[in-house]
Design goal:
alpha/beta; six-stranded parallel beta sheet; about 15% strand; globular
């Protein structure tokens, strides 16, 4: 597939593990944003893990994407030659030592950010902190050995050594990308993390205004991944471990994501959240309050409103979870809830509509759970589906996630008149019960349940599917809420103002 390569663009979208290779809420939103402004030219910088993890595009590139480049953070971690002995620049490694000391006194002190901003400049091509020195120099070896000796008792030194490389080596790749990226007027990141690091580096080195839009809070979501991960080893036995203690391995990863987030927050203006709780989390994580505000997601009403007329007279006993088959979506809780639903409504169906290839082992665990519960006739893994094809055939949109932001799938269901049952995550309570008094007066558009509680999830679903009056009231509230507060035109108008202000700022810089 040929991809466009231009000499310049209006906006560089820096995307980590999303559009155009991965389908889902964030990617769908990015596709919306690009297509909403055909007069703006976009360059896309895609950051992935390894090339083999991404197959074909899930989205066609719109015509106003004039430049596309992709980079893989963990693609080339091994040497292909015998490295020569290197000493390492003393000034550069002096900064590294200062940064380590500063981080040990807390990530939020001003000295940490000052040293960090100095250090990242030296990671660029031609800088004093060369990748080869990080990988092979005597000074780097001494720092790694000292860190292991002083802090690390759980993994082997070999595990620790390679983890340090995997964590930090991508930063040199991003420093090179920042140097070589085509000229752009504005940079827009959809997360902090490695994408936010690149956006902040462009702001620091070029003065390019940086817009940050966070759907979920990247640092929080990576912490959840790290807590659940099984690849991070802890070699201590049960008597050596304090169950309240977080292993140093996990602490290192969390600290990396925290300071990358703070580095991005220091450069970004504005810093946009989807809803108030996430905005407050951004502030708590280091964002300047005066730079933060909310722009909720919006959906195209005309795309979904006609589906209301295609629905049967009574709501179908079909519970549909639309999302990726990954742990953060907690598919297993949905499966367990379906056992109780099927006991009460033997003909009930549970549809899981979303790609399963991102985490094949988890997908297999979910399918094994279906078999062990005897639900093969009730639960179906549909893979990726067009939402418009699903909505007239389902009675409820179900979301069992342990973390979300403002899920587009709930809004799409609302526009089609489908109520929701959702865990109490992100903005979901706001979407179901309303935000302020005027919103709450519209009524409940479904049910909110606790995280990881299959019984309450099942009971909430049954209370709507077995009571046509309650279901109809929730459907009407859903339609009214999305039409009043969550249309794409409202979202597009607000982002147009964000882009125009950033373009004016860019003109002032240059």
């Amino acid at each position: 597939m040929s991809t466009p390569k231009a000499e310049r663009a209006d906006v560089a979208l820096i995307l980590e593990g999303t559009f155009p290779y991965v389908s889902g809420g964030v990617s769908s939103w990015i596709n919306q944003i690009i297509r909403a402004y055909p007069e703006i030219s976009f360059a896309i910088v895609f950051l992935g893990s390894r090339r083999a993890d991404y197959k074909a595009f899930k989205y066609a590139l719109p015509d106003n994407v004039v430049h596309f480049e992709e980079h893989y953070l963990y693609e080339d971690l091994n040497a292909h030659h015998q490295p020569a002995m290197r000493a390492g620049d003393p000034e550069a490694f002096g900064l590294v030592s200062q940064l380590i000391d500063a981080l040990n006194h807390g990530a939020d002190n001003a000295q940490t950010m000052h040293i960090l901003r100095q250090l990242v400049l030296e990671m660029r091509p031609g800088g004093k902190l060369k990748l080869e020195d990080f990988l092979y120099s005597q000074r780097a070896w001494a720092i790694i050995c000292a860190a292991y000796r002083d802090h690390c008792s759980d993994p082997s030194f070999v595990d620790f050594f390679w983890t340090v490389r995997i964590m930090f080596q991508p930063l040199w790749l991003l420093a090179r990308v920042a140097t070589e990226l085509i000229p752009v007027r504005v940079t827009h990141c959809a997360s902090t993390g490695y994408a936010g690091f690149l956006g902040a580096l462009l702001e620091q080195t070029r003065g390019t205004p940086l817009i940050l839009s966070e759907h979920g809070i990247y640092t929080k979501e990576r912490k959840i991944d790290l807590f659940k991960s099984e690849w991070i080893r802890d070699n201590r036995n049960v008597f050596q471990r304090d169950p309240t203690e977080l292993s140093y391995f996990r602490q290192m990863w969390i600290q990396l994501f925290e300071w990358m987030g703070r580095y991005c927050y220091a450069s970004a203006n504005p810093i946009i959240a989807l809803y108030e709780a996430n905005r407050l989390r951004q502030v708590a994580d280091g964002a300047m309050p005066e730079r933060t505000f909310n722009i909720p997601n919006g959906i195209q009403l005309a795309r979904f409103a006609p589906l209301r007329a295609q629905r049967p007279a009574t709501p179908p006993p079909v519970l549909c979870l639309i999302g990726r088959v990954v742990p953060i979506k907690d598919i297993k809780t949905f499966v367990r809830a379906m056992r109780r639903v099927a006991n009460e409504l033997p003909g009930a169906q549970g549809w899981i509509a979303g790609p399963a290839e991102e985490d094949p082992s988890y997908a297999e665990e979910c399918q094994s759970l279906v078999r062990s519960l005897g639900l093969e006739e009730n639960i179906h893994f549909l893979g990726f589906q067009k939402v418009e094809d699903l909505m007239p055939r389902i009675g409820l949109v179900v979301l069992s996630s342990i973390s979300e932001a403002l899920p587009l799938v709930l809004l799409e269901g609302y526009a089609a008149g489908v109520p929701a049952v959702s865990t109490d995550v992100g903005s979901c309570r706001q979407l179901v019960e309303g935000l302020d008094a005027a919103d709450q007066a519209l009524g409940h558009s479904g049910k909110i349940v606790p995280i990881a509680d299959p019984q309450q999830l099942a009971d909430a679903a049954l209370s709507l599917l077995t009571d046509p009056v309650a279901w109809q009231a929730a459907s009407l509230a859903a339609i009214a809420r999305v039409e009043r507060y969550y249309t794409d035109t409202m979202m597009f108008d607000r982002y147009r103002a964000v882009y125009e202000k950033a373009f004016q700022q860019a003109a002032g810089v240059h």
